[in-house]
Amino acid sequence: MGTENLALVVGSYDDTAAASDDYKALRNGQDAGGYEIIGAVVLVRDKDGKVQVKEHGDRSVGKGAAWGAGAGVVVGLFAPPLLAATAVGAGIGAILGKIKKNREEKQFGVDVDEYLAPGTSAVVAVVDDRWADNVEKALQRSDKRISKAIDADDYEKLRKAIEDSADDVVEQINS
């Protein structure tokens, strides 16, 4: 799958169980051949604003190489400050700074407080933009959905920085 035309698809949920259910439905749709997902996570934000990154259900993404492979990129594109709070390494920090600057200049990206307010959850996926409508439809239990174009160059640079720093990121997450 190419990464030339990418979209960030986000579904926001008041109910964490509904987010997990839609995540599973999203993965099932991919398995059935309805679309291809580059990366997807479930984010849960507690009432105090602390965010947990989960793949689905109770299985945390913050352990092992799975974080470096896809979840970190998805989180970084959705909300650079969430990844910056966890990630270490100058390469990741520089890329996150560029993404943040691009969002401010180009008015793209997603408002974290709108789509992941305290006490809510979100399913966040990165897909080829040709699949964005199908993926949005798979998030049927969400209270609101959005699909936004993302910069493929940002994706590739962030993926590479996380891949190069995966051991440091995993160590920081697990500490």
UniProtKB/TrEMBL annotation:
Keywords: Membrane, Transmembrane, Transmembrane helix. The keyword Membrane applies. It comes from the Bacteria. Pfam families: DUF1269. The chain crosses the membrane at residues 65-96. This is DUF1269 domain-containing protein.
